[in-house]
Amino acid sequence: MTNYYNDDTIIFLDGRFVKAGEAKTDLYGQTLHYGYGVFEGIRAYDTVNGTKIFRPHDHYERLKRSCSLMGIPFHFGVEELVQITYQVVEKNKFRNAYVRPLVYCSPNMALTSPNEVSLMIAAWECEQHPDIHPERVCISSFQRPNPKAVTMEAKVCGLYVNSILATQEAKKRGFDDGLLLDMHGFVAEGPGANFFYEKDGVIYTPPAGSILPGITRDTVISICRELEIPVEETLFRPEDLYEADSAFFSSTMLEIVGIESIEGQPFRKKWKGSLSAHIQETYRCIVLDKSYSYVIV
Ligand code: PMP
Fold this sequence. Notes:
The chain is of the alpha+beta class. It has two domains: 116 residues, 2-Layer Sandwich (D-amino Acid Aminotransferase, Chain A, domain 1); 153 residues, Alpha-Beta Barrel (D-amino Acid Aminotransferase, Chain A, domain 2). The chain is 24% helix and 27% strand. The strands form two sheets. Strands 8, 9, 10, 11, 12, 13, 14, 15 and 16 form a nine-stranded mixed β-sheet that branches. A hairpin with a 2-residue loop joins strand 1 and strand 2. The chain starts with 9 loop residues before the first strand and ends in a 10-residue tail after the last helix.
């Protein structure tokens, strides 16, 4: 997709609602040159109760935490940010949309702290649920960065260079996506999503440390607890996946995406009927405010 806006699209920029095509930015900022900025990815859904943004407070808490971890001054309050986001979605008459808040820094070519920051909140329409077939995934030759280099808990622009390199490599090798390991060889996450696998009725996912602890990941863990599916946050290696029953990626944009195989090795269960597929269905109900079944069949 390349058409993120048209002549009528409205964004929020520095306290005002403006046309996306008329918005301007400075070319001498630290975000553009050094990747020193933070952002979020949020979803709005056309639910049975009208357009609803999913877990907006949690996304903006994370945005504020990312700013504070990076030393970026940012003074908006969470509730204010949620209200602005609803306005962006409403002004554009979107029903199902992806929302992209970006905090970027004022002109400063030095490596010192920024004086001023800008906030942009843009949105574009998307499918209610992404229609993605279970993916063929490879183990990336790119590792997730050392958490002592940049706090991995922050959603920092520059960290996505690593994600782009891993995605490019996976596509070049003929795979849909890559799975990145941490600096010690443990499974970490996808380029833009968290990773889970199912084995013998238990769901496993890597702990915080070398991953972005996703809000979707957190929802998945809550779903597992509610459905009484044991879930363990633990370190594991790629070899541990060969005996797995199923696996999936989780992210705000992709929701739950099934994984068909890793390095060509398929999982023991078909996607349909796996615990992972059940979690996917439940997630789709929750984001749409629909009730869901607690019974696993
Ligand atoms: N890891 C990375 C590297 C990501 O970019 C994302 C997407 N934001 C996630 C995990 C999933 O996070 P969330 O569920 O909050 O979208």
